[in-house]
Amino acid sequence: MTALRLIGEIMPYKGTKMSEEGQKRLSETRKRLFTQGRLAPWNKGLTKKDHRVFKNISGGSRKTQFKKGPKPETAGRNNANWKGGKRKSSAGYILIRNKTHPRSQNGYIFEHTLMAEKKLGRYLKLDELVHHINENKEDNRPENLAVIYRGSHVGYHRWGTELKEIDD
Ligand SMILES: [Zn+2]
Asked: Residue 47 domain-assigned?
């Protein structure tokens, strides 16, 4: 409550105008995400108006779209074929289906390992590890990955000691 009030005081806009614009923006975002297939139509917090919008976009019936049951998103993660063999590890890292890589385990390899090796042009050595620079485990863009010595990693996260990227 305190934080919300504080934001309200800081915001230079008037309450009602801000709220309307905010809602409109949110609605636009939902529509965009939905057409991109990134938002499930049974997403919580939708208004009746949103239901209509989704119905018009997809051409489906409300009955089928809003039926209860497990979200396909969840079902997909348990499915090995999800997004062409991508899934998430219990620790939150992205795994890629790959049976031939030396480090593949149970038919999967960490996406960050593959990306880092692509960047280096060689396989990772045993004493090397991939660090996510922005700490987002799912952000495997090459510029977010630093190959570092395993031994220096814990110190970096615990005490902020320096990390030296291995780039050859
Ligand atoms: Zn790290």
From this structure: yes
46 in the same domain as 96: no
Q: Is residue 30 domain-shared with residue 95, that is, in the same domain?
A: no
Is the four-CA dihedral 91, 97, 101, 107 of positive or negative sign?
positive
Residues with a beta carbon under 5 angstroms from ion ligand 1: 131
Q: How far is the CA of 116 from the centre of ligand 1 (A)?
A: 13
Distance 148 CA to ligand 1 centre (A): 9
CATH of the domain at 105: 3.90.75.20
pTM: 0.51
Q: Where are the alpha helices (DSSP H) in the chain?
A: 2-10, 15-35, 48-58, 62-65, 72-77, 111-120, 150-159
Q: What is the pLDDT of residues 94-108, one digit of tens each?
A: 999 999 999 999 999
Ligand 1 center–CA 132 separation, angstroms: 5
